[in-house]
């Protein structure tokens, strides 16, 4: 018998999904420590230099920052200055600015990175996968045709062709003036 035939005898209904087992990601799930506001890196960043903290743009109620651990080159996050953890805790004004900055970020990424698409998402709460659950943040991940390869799976390595500082400088320079 093949593995598929063996699997057909197991409980449950087979589906079209293939499973990719990634036990190395448990560190993100198992770490239950969440920073308090006084130790939150997202609250700290705006008090520092933009280059040092990878801030691309500062708005009135929200800002755009490069992800320090990017999924792809140009991975951005848009977040309010205010330390709130959930989307429904943000004010209408904050949500409006986050949405506007997200649109602008998509345009700027297209101009600078020439990406083919974008993943946009928020993980709400630690149980949903938010690395810093106490501070709302929206991910904007540029995608290219065939940008996935075997490195992350086989070698536990992500190929990022541009340095964070270089990409931040290019995105900040391309950001439209208010």
Structure description:
This protein is an alpha+beta fold. The protein has one domain: HIT family, subunit A (2-Layer Sandwich), CATH 3.30.428. 32% of the residues lie in helices and 14% in strands. The protein contains seven helices and five strands. The protein has a five-stranded antiparallel β-sheet with strand order 1-2-3-5-4. A hairpin with a 3-residue loop joins strand 1 and strand 2. The protein is globular and about 50 Å long. The chain starts with a helix and ends with a helix.
Helix content: 25-40%
- Shape assignment: globular
Regarding CATH, which class? Alpha Beta
Rg (C-alpha, Å): 19 Å
What's the overall average pLDDT, rounded? Answer: 83
Major β-sheet, in short? 5 strands, antiparallel
CATH superfamily: HIT-like
Tally of alpha and pi helices: 7
What CATH calls the topology is HIT family, subunit A
SSE succession: HHHHEEEHEEHH
Ranges where pLDDT stays below 50 over 5 or more residues in a row are none
Shape-level CATH architecture? 2-Layer Sandwich
